[in-house]
Amino acid sequence: MECRRTANGQRKCALAGIAWEQLTIFPFTGALSEAIDTGAFVLSHLQQPDLFIRLRPGYEKSVLEKLHKAAEPYRRVNDTCIAFSNAAKIDALLELDKEAVVQDYSSQRVGEFLLLAGASAATPVRAVWDCCAASGGKSILAKDMLGDIRLTVSDVRKQILVNLQQRFAAAGIKEYESFIMDLAADGRATVTTPTQTNRGTPKSSIYDLIIADAPCSGSGTWGRTPESLSFFKETEIDRYQALQKQVVSNAFPALKKGGCFLYITCSVFKKENEEMVSFIEEQFQPRLVRAELLKGYGQKADTMFAALFIKE
């Protein structure tokens, strides 16, 4: 697949001092999800992405007042999303994680799927497991979107959960369970935290919602880390897909009947996105509620993929 040769595309390349024929910025176009506008996506790597924040419930007015007082330039994307220059010193103006969360625009759009899960699940969504929690951004989003939930978080890395604990404290999230688990291996807890001992494998049918922000190539974020384009090998896509299949296979059985499974990547590759939807459907026969490539390249944001399923 080649980038479409348009007058606008040629003009942008000329401004960047690049001949169209020499445009090899993103050499993996043949692996892209079909929904990607290849030309627009490739050219988006020539500009610095914006910095985005999400206003947390109850702090919308106070955050805007602080930004106005500081005369900090910003772009209002919607009622809760604000974009800044990537050089903006937001941490000097706001109480991050308490008043607002630094979160990419497309990542914020995952909130649409969380609300849909709340409306689609057979029973009220209470028990939520963020099984690849990382820094906890999706967990905080779930808490803000779904309200009174019993939150469980896990990750393969101990230090990540230590950092997450500090972030949750700033966000006012006090009641939750956490444990360290390698879902890409055998799905067993390899190290226990003080709040969880001898957990073993996840118990079956106990969660109303499982959020699986799966390990992936990160290709939808390479506009922020352009060096990744130089080091990435296309054969890695298969390795990531294998990891994703293992994570999903270990996590899905912990979902209640009628519960929702939310699969997320920050990838633009078909094998990590649409092909994983097919795998989940074939493996577990859930009902697909919605699957969408969250195109950030038109908003100077990351590009992500999300798919919501209901266990039948």
Main attributes of the structure:
about 300 residues, alpha/beta, Rossmann fold, 3 domains, eight-stranded mixed beta sheet, four-stranded antiparallel beta sheet, about 30% helix, about 20% strand, globular
Overview of this protein structure:
By secondary structure, the protein is an alpha/beta fold. It folds into three domains: 40 residues, no CATH class; 52 residues, no CATH class; 206 residues, Rossmann fold (3-Layer(aba) Sandwich). Helix content is 31%, strand content 22%. The strands form two sheets. Strands 8-7-6-5-9-10-12-11 form an eight-stranded mixed beta sheet, with helices on both faces. Strand 6, helix 7 and strand 7 form a beta-alpha-beta unit. The two termini are 38 Å apart.
Compact description:
The protein is α/β, with parallel strands linked by helices and 312 residues long. It is 31% helix and 22% strand. It has 3 domains: 7-46, no CATH class; 51-102, no CATH class; 105-310, Vaccinia Virus protein VP39 (Rossmann fold), CATH 3.40.50.150.
Task: Set out the fold topology.
Elements: H1 7-15, H2 38-43, E1 51-55, H3 60-70, E2 75-76, E3 81-84, E4 100-102, H4 105-108, H5 110-120, E5 127-130, H6 137-146, E6 150-155, H7 158-171, E7 176-182, E8 188-191, E9 207-213, H8 228-231, H9 236-251, E10 255-265, H10 274-284, E11 287-294, E12 304-310
Parallel strand pairs: 5-6, 5-9, 6-7, 9-10
Antiparallel strand pairs: 1-3, 1-4, 2-3, 7-8, 10-12, 11-12
